[in-house]
Amino acid sequence: MKFNRSYLLVSLFFVLNACKGSNQTSTPAEQPAQSTSQSPVDTATAGNITGVVKFAGTKPKMQKISMGADATCKMAHATDVYSEEVVVNPNNTLKYVYVYVKSGLGALKFPAPAEPVVLDQLGCLYAPHVVAIQVGQKLKIRNSDGVLHNVNARPVKNQGFNLGQPVKGMETDKSFTVPEVMIPVKCDVHPWMHGWIGVQDHPYASVTNDGGAFSLNNLPPGDYEIEAWHEKYGTATQKVTVGAKESKTIEFTFKGA
To answer: SS3 for 37?
Structure first.
């Protein structure tokens, strides 16, 4: 009887320790932290590239959009609405040019931002017309209109999607797995609605504003190739060297007819 009791105690000891060891190996908290959880850039030596994208030549006539086929879309605008394919700002710069670091970052790995990028459907237009997003970052697609929209994204390298949003205020999250310049987006319900998404595996991408300006901040010192992309006028590139704590200013110029 004494032998059996000791045998049971010893057996129980090994069973408990085996279970304990199994729990330790399967608990996520015990796994090593991912190296991509922090930015690899030393902010004490980081520099910046800022600039503008200018327009030269004859300013194109903007195409008027007819929204008469959908009363809700038409009523959303008090004035005429024009295509955003080419938007020349009052200071002769271009809006909606996607500017990004094309090469020069080497093997550096960057974590995806926690804050999502919002692509809204507002007044039966995509707002904004061009968006910049990072691999793994959430794209929050929102319908702010009281009308059915469908969002049809047709990438080449990433997985495409075609989703419907029939309810005002509806939101859907998507993300991308690899860099791609650029991903076209359209609405099959309203054929004039189209936009673009630029995806990078780093945070150095910008879309020019209504002053034609862009900024690529907190770059590690190095030699870079910067590319500017426009949906009608194509691409232009420049090589830029950024020193420690150095700020560089550059310009791109796209020519019309």
So the answer is: helix
Task: Characterize 174-199 residue by residue with b for buried, 16 or more Cβ atoms within 10 angstroms of its Cβ, and e for exposed.
Answer: bbbeebbbbbebbbebbebbbbbbbb
Q: What is the pLDDT of residues 84-131, one digit of tens each?
A: 999 999 999 999 999 999 999 999 999 999 999 999 999 999 999 999
Q: Supply the pLDDT for residue 180.
A: 98
- The HSE-up count of residue 25 (CA atoms within 13 Å, CB side) is 5
Q: Is the pTM of this model over 0.90?
A: no
68's tokens? 């008469």
Q: What is the pLDDT of residue 257?
A: 76
In 3-state terms, what secondary structure has residue 242?
strand
Q: In whole angstroms, what separates CA 6 from the centre of its chain?
A: 65
- Of 179, 106, 195, the residue nearest 136 (C-alpha): 179
pLDDT at position 37: 64
Q: How far is CA 217 from CA 46, 48, 93, 244, 246, in A?
A: 8, 4, 21, 13, 11
The sign of the CA dihedral 236, 90, 211, 151 is: negative
Residue 111, number of CB atoms within 10 A of its CB: 16
3-state class (DSSP) for residue 219: strand
CA atoms within 13 A on the CB side of 27: 8
Residue of 204, 251, 240 whose CA lies nearest to 52: 251
Identify each DSSP E strand in 19-107 by its residue range. 47-56, 64-65, 81-82, 87-88, 94-95, 98-103
